[in-house]
Design brief:
The protein is an alpha/beta fold and 306 residues long. It has helices spanning 19-34, 53-60, 74-85, 104-114, 142-163, 183-188, 201-211, 231-234, 236-254, 257-280, 284-299, and strands at residues 7-15, 40-46, 65-68, 88-94, 98-100, 118-127, 132-133, 136-137, 169-170, 173-174, 178-182, 215-226. It is globular. The mean pLDDT is 90.
């Protein structure tokens, strides 16, 4: 393998049929890096896209390196592939449906430069209308997930509006939509766990970093806009199924067996009820999706992290 000189930053974008949103992501990223006085590289890991993503990159962004995977391997495996091919001291992982607000990458880098005891820093994530998106949180268990899905979004959104600069805080995990991490701790813990296809790999990464003695920071002075144009909106059935797979795997690896089985019981009740409502409304598509989710839940088993 050709030995490449180390650069300060490797930006790694995981892409699957990103289309015009990928263009927006790359345009804002190139503009950001052009304004920074540091050596950097941009890598797009393409998960076997069937749209014009690759031609868009070659035509509009010829300096971007592309790693083309033969099949859609999911976020974690694609991210690890990009990291292994990179040569940056810092690794910036990005979704393909975001736009970076000016100055944000510099703020993230400056934070890690000034705080060697932190392995990871993440920006605030905003919706396309500027609304707050919850992109960090406490260690995941039944109680914390209940808080995150009921009260946390409104609570943190209010804090963000009123006390944006005071919201910087240590967190247990940060969303993989956009995060900056030091190269050494990332590879020290083995990168993202490739058993996750989509969702919860970021929470798993945060937990393993903290178990290795590292700290994580949420930095709202840095901001990205998340357009949510990828899997969640284009393939809602796949997104829901993979989200439940990821959630169950996380609990199987990192929570007490009782918590795992309580989660399974709750999810079975929830999605059997949703399936019943879909049957009543004669929505065959939703009924099929919920049937697949129920199969995933029934087939999951508790295991030990290795």
């Amino acid at each position: 393998m050709e030995r490449r000189e180390m650069v300060h930053l490797s930006a790694i974008i995981i892409n699957y049929n990103g289309g015009d949103l990928l263009r927006k992501t790359l345009s804002s990223l190139v503009a950001e890096l052009t304004g920074l006085e540091l050596e950097s590289e941009i890598i797009v890991v393409d998960n076997a896209s069937t749209d014009d993503s690759l031609s868009l990159i070659s035509d509009r962004f010829p300096s971007v390196r592309v790693i083309s995977l033969p099949r859609n391997s999911g976020f974690a495996r694609a991210a690890n592939s990009g990291a292994r091919a990179s040569c940056g001291r810092y690794l910036l992982f990005l979704n393909n449906d975001i736009e970076i607000e000016p100055g944000s990458i510099g703020r993230l880098i400056s934070f890690l430069d000034a705080h060697p005891d932190y392995a990871l820093v993440a920006p605030a994530v905003l919706g396309r209308d500027g609304s707050f998106e919850l992109s960090f949180g406490p260690d995941l268990n039944l109680l914390s997930e209940f808080f995150l899905k009921t009260l946390a979004r409104k609570y943190y959104a209010c804090l963000y509006r009123l006390f944006r600069k005071k919201m910087a805080r240590d967190v247990d995990w940060a969303s993989g939509v956009a995060l900056l991490i030091r190269r050494e701790p990332f590879f020290e813990i083995g990168g993202f766990d490739e058993r996750y296809f989509l969702y919860f790999e970021d929470a798993d990464l945060g937990l393993r970093l903290r178990c290795s003695g590292y700290k994580l920071r949420y930095l709202p002075e840095a901001r990205i806009i998340h357009y949510r144009g990828a899997v969640a909106s284009k393939y809602p059935g796949l997104a829901l199924i993979e989200a439940k797979k990821g959630q169950l795997l996380y609990y199987a690896l990192h929570n007490h067996p009782l918590s795992f089985h309580w989660l399974k019981a709750y999810l079975l009740i929830k999605f059997n009820f949703r399936k019943f409502l879909a049957w009543l409304s004669r929505n065959s598509q939703k009924k099929l999706i919920y049937s697949e989710v129920i199969k995933v839940i029934k087939g999951s088993a508790h295991e030990t992290a290795t």
